[in-house]
Amino acid sequence: KLTSLALQPVITPELVQGRVQLKCSYSPPFPEPPVQYRVLWSRLSSPGKREQVHHETTPQSFSYVEMDGANLRLGDTVFCTVTAFRRGTPEQQSLPEDSKGFYAGIKFLPESLEITEDGKEHVLTVLSTVPIACPGQDDFCKITLQLSTEDLGKSSQAPGPPDIALSACQVDLLPEPCSGSGCAAATVTVTAVTDFAQDGNRGSRISAEPVSPGDLLWRAYTPRDVKVTVRDLPTGNCYSFTDPHIITFDGWRYDNYKIGTFLLCRSDSRAFEVHVRQWDCGGHRSATACNCGVAAQ
């Protein structure tokens, strides 16, 4: 009779003799007579479709499969399905039980970002869900990822200059013991470029690519991109033009016909100020001064 035994299969990554393995563990029914387990490994080949990659029958409460770069590759979502039956009566088996899908590869956390042109730094974590293997004895163990940004613009516009800036162009993933969160992690900060342009909300993406990895598993693997939406913030402007007419940030208008060096603007909150130099440009006919120099800190 088909029954559910609450085997609760779970996939965890392990490094076994320098090779990346996935382990499917399940809880044996207790106290039950000795049972065998049929373990079926599969990968998501397209949305909603699975492809079988390995199966075995074992008395153990676990099963291993190797991430070999052929049957199982980085970027795959992997499942194990476990059925139990008593020895000698394989036709009397339990209901097959599925593990949750295990994504093997690089994850970005968060998977997408929505940020504002306010100069704030947003932390992006780069996480490997599989262990970093050392291909040779002399090699320093790490995977280096080259990061790049691309402006997606708006659908009506051609892509323009990058709308986001990263704190680093490369990150190194160094091996550490696998835990619930992953097997290696690095962080990078993302900031929206304050461009003083009212260009609406724009989309950008961050891409990562392994740099000449020694490990075969990492070759020809491109992690998923991170989508970043940058929200426009109106920025203040102040002006000093012609025979200096001045318009302040809050829209007040002044004239300053004097000759000399003046403080045009100073921030109360940070080390930022702008000086202007004005000089006689009216000659004998009129006493008029014009901007002839500017200095900004």
Automatic annotation (TrEMBL):
Entry annotated with the keyword Signal: yes
Pfam families, per the entry: Ig_VWDE
Matching PROSITE patterns: VWFD
Keyword tags: Disulfide bond, Signal
GO cellular component: cell surface; extracellular region
Origin: domain of life: Eukaryota
One MF term in the entry's GO annotations: signaling receptor binding
Domain VWFD stretches: 236-297
Name this protein carries in UniProt: VWDE protein
